[in-house]
Design goal:
By secondary structure, the protein is of the alpha/beta class. The chain has one domain: 3-Layer(aba) Sandwich (Rossmann fold). It has 13 helices and ten strands. Strands 1-2-4-3-5-6-9-10 form an eight-stranded mixed sheet, sandwiched between helices. Strands 7-8 form a two-stranded antiparallel ribbon. Helix 3 packs across helix 4 and helix 7 packs across helix 8. 49% of the residues are buried. Keywords: Hydrolase, Plasmid. It comes from Rhizobium favelukesii. This is Alpha/beta hydrolase fold protein. Pfam families: Abhydrolase_6. One of its GO terms (cellular component) is membrane.
Length: 291
C-alpha cells in the first residue's frame, strides 16, 4: 500500500491510497457521502490487486483529506471535477476505470462535464446518484437517506450519532458483521455535520453528460436499495442506452460490501474488457442477474 497527497481543486490536499501493481491498468474507486476509502476494503484486499493498480480517494471533507467547514468548498462542481482530474494526472493513472458509489455519481458527472472522457476507460456507477433536486426525493432518493438526513446534518451530537447509526444500518439489506458495521460508523462520524450538509446544498442534473457518454458503462444496483432507489438506476440506463445493468437481488445500497465476491468478479471482467479495448463488456457476465 502506498499513500499519496494530491493537490486538488482550490489547492485542497487530498488523501489517496493505492494497492497492486503500479504498472498495471488502473481502477479508481470514489466513495459516497460521509464515507472514505475504507469502504473499499473488500476490493483492495482482494485478488483485484493482482492484475490492476487500485487507487482510492478520500473526497474533500472526508477521511484524511483536508476538510474546511465553509460550504463553498463543496458546492462548486468545478472543484469536484478538479479533484478527480488531479488524482488522474498527478498519479499518472493512464485512463482508469472509474468506480463511483452513491454521491460519487454526481462527482464523476462533474468531472465528465468539465474534462470529457479522454482520460477515462470506463465507468461503473454503483448505486450511483445522478439527479439531486426536490423532485428526486421519494422518487429516486429514498427513505434510507431522507429519514436520517436531518439528524446527520445537525450539530447536536446525540442526534448526529443516532442518525448515522441508522443510516449505516440502512445502507445494507442484510446485517453487516459487527466489526464492519462498527468501523463504518466510525468513518462516517469522521465527517463533520456541516460538510455533510454542504454536499446536499447543490441541485444537480446530469442528463446532458450521460446522454452523450461514449465509454463503456456498468450500472450496479441493489434491488432493495432504499438510499438511492432502483428508479435512479433505471434512469441512468434510459440515459445511457449502451450501458450494462447488473441488478443484485436481496441487496441494499452497498453491493460491494454485501456481495464482494460477485462484485469483484464483475468489476474484474468489466475493467479487463475496457482496458483491452472491447467496446462493451460481454453481457454473459451479467445477464443472469439482470432485472
Amino acid at each position: 500500500m502506498k499513500v499519496h497527497h494530491v493537490t486538488g481543486g482550490g489547492g485542497l490536499r487530498l488523501h489517496v491510497r493505492e494497492w497492486g501493481n503500479e504498472d498495471a491498468p488502473s481502477i479508481f474507486f470514489i466513495h459516497g457521502w460521509s464515507q472514505n476509502h475504507l469502504c473499499w476494503k473488500n476490493q483492495y484486499e482482494s485478488t483485484l490487486a493482482d492484475d490492476f493498480r487500485l487507487v482510492a480517494l478520500d473526497l474533500r471533507g472526508h477521511g484524511m483529506s483536508d476538510a474546511p467547514l465553509e460550504a463553498e468548498h463543496y458546492t462548486e462542481p468545478q472543484l469536484w471535477a478538479d479533484d478527480i482530474a488531479a488524482v488522474i494526472d498527478q498519479l499518472d493513472l493512464r485512463s482508469p476505470v472509474l468506480v463511483g458509489w452513491s454521491y460519487a455519481g454526481f462527482i464523476i458527472c462533474d468531472y465528465l462535464r468539465a474534462y470529457g472522457i479522454a482520460h477515462v476507460a470506463a465507468i461503473n456507477f454503483v448505486g450511483g446518484a445522478i439527479t439531486l433536486n426536490k423532485a428526486a426525493f421519494g422518487t429516486m432518493i429514498g427513505s434510507g437517506f431522507l429519514d436520517h438526513v436531518i439528524g446527520a446534518t445537525s450539530d447536536d451530537l446525540p442526534s448526529n450519532i443516532e442518525a448515522i447509526r441508522n443510516f449505516v444500518r440502512g445502507c445494507t439489506y442484510s446485517q453487516l458483521p459487527s466489526e464492519v458495521f462498527e468501523m463504518a460508523i466510525c468513518w462516517n462520524m469522521a465527517v463533520p455535520a456541516k460538510i455533510r450538509a454542504a454536499l446536499l446544498a447543490r441541485e444537480i442534473d446530469s442528463d446532458e453528460v450521460l446522454t452523450t457518454l461514449a465509454v463503456p458503462v456498468l450500472m450496479t444496483q441493489g434491488q432493495e436499495d432504499t438510499v438511492v432507489l432502483p428508479a435512479m438506476g433505471r434512469r441512468l440506463l434510459a440515459l445511457c442506452p449502451g450501458a450494462t445493468a447488473s441488478w443484485y437481488s436481496a441487496t441494499g445500497h452497498a453491493p460491494f460490501l454485501e456481495n464482494p465476491i460477485r462484485f469483484n468478479n464483475e468489476l474484474y471482467h468489466f475493467a479487463r474488457d475496457a482496458h483491452s479495448g472491447v467496446a462493451a463488456p460481454a453481457r454473459a457476465y451479467f445477464s443472469r442477474h439482470e432485472k
